[in-house]
Fold this protein.
Amino acid sequence: MNKKFVKYYEKGIKYLLALVAGTSILILFLIFIFLFKEGIGIFAKVGILNFIFGMEWLPASEPPIFGAMPMIVGSLVVTVGAGIIAIPFGIGIAMFLAEVAPRNLREILKAIIELLAGIPSVVYGFIGLIVLSPIIKDLFNLSSGLNAFTASLVLGIMALPTVVSISEDALNAVPDSYREASLALGATKWETTIRIILPSARSGLLAASMLGLGRAIGETMAVLMVAGNATIIPHSVFDPVRTITADIAAEMGETVQGGTHYQALFGLGVILFSMTFVINLITDLVFAKTSNIQRGAQL
Amino acid sequence: MSRKLKEKIGFGSLAVCTFLAIIPVLLIIAYLIYVGGPAITWEFITQPPHGFLKEGGIFPAIIGTLGLTTGTIIVALPLGIGTAIYLVEYSKQNFFTTLIRIAIINLAGVPSVVYGLFGLGLFVLMLNFGRSLVAGALTLGFLTLPVIISAAEEALIAVPDDYRNASLALGATHWQTISRIVLPTAMPSILTGAILGIGRAAGETAPIMFTCAAIYIPSLPNSIFDQVMALPYHLYAVATQVPNVPESKAFGAAIVLIAIVCGLNLIAIIIRTKMRLKNTR
């Protein structure tokens, strides 16, 4: 082969791959553009503050009213609820896996948790609807088992694998010399775990929690099926709620392209995108700190 | 309380916590299989539905999901591997690569329903694909991209530099080294990560709700611009949208969906375990 040709061929491949790598930037940019392009109309019509803080969401009334607050509250309630379940359990399981479980048991448990992570959200929603909600209904003597509590429970279970696997990585990343030093000073394994390992892995555990919350807030199908879907501000955890994600999924089918309702749903998409963006940003900052700490430990 | 006792209680409660979280979920899945198992017959898997989902099987939904999965692979695998090769083998740390990394991290955090909105706006409406297999596959492909990039990057980084140096020293060009030495070495572990990501895409519902899936199409699609049935959306529809569908049909659909997704995951886990054993030997 001609030498010059080889040189151009190599260069061509490099630029082609650079182009391919650039698609990620393009996709994020396009997502951003499309959400705003389709959603900007509602902010203009209703006003940004009225849209975000409006207490009523009545797309079918005449004239329709679009206030996103019930859904924003709904999303926050089930996300916090999911966090209360997934974070302590997730970190507890990660501690068990990283510090206590014998090797065989650990491998089996990790495989199970990975399979749980793979189960589609619509299946979790189905299980919540058919199995869990009747149990919750009877247990607490409610008129319906489809409410914020059930949704939190299902979301918590769904976020668990994320929290476990990242927490476990964080715990494993603590250098063994820390463990050995603590044990050599006469501390028990439990004291070492609680007072040395946990604090050292703090930022990794925080990142795991944030990613778990991020998973929960963006979850759609499961909450659509089990949260009860009432567009009201809930007064107790046993009230039905509707999340931002569920509202988009439930109502997009009824809208006319470019209509006010259609724009309002893209407006909700903008709010949701912004919320997850903030969660990601915090996680990134925490993660950056983690790697600095680890770098510090190596020096 | 003695310190030893404290340790026993502490570790004991961690174990309890682990089994408390995992066992009920396993029990529920076992219950699902127990109740839905009898619904799964040869007819259920190979026949189209009729009587608006109340009778017949789920064959078109299975085919639709397999079609979407294939489309996801076609979209995401070349883009993902290409991006990873560029990041690991070609680029130095610069503004462009920083931008790519920020984009990947943020794409990974975008909720699936937002991908659905994006797919609706871009593919269905603007590019005028309509609700179709191709619009759904593109949306799912983009959703899966960050997972595949990360998996491929990790796999490429794990290839020892000695391999590259040896190849280059023998006079191979940069691209020959990558395509004949680095990529084949990294391939099994790239595929493991990719299969996990694609398994997740196969179970997604929200992104295909507005871009592709239909509740009831007994016939199979003729072209990639047709709407299709898909298993996850089918399960959602029979569980909540369509009245008077026998519950066993929903249970059956759930089991088939779990089987497809977990089957993919299992393949990935087996490949990985085999590789681990080979590497430790």
Strands of chain B lie at 49-50, 55-56. The mean pLDDT of chain B is 87. The longest strand of chain B covers residues 49-50. The CA atoms of residues 94 and 249 of chain B lie 54 Å apart.
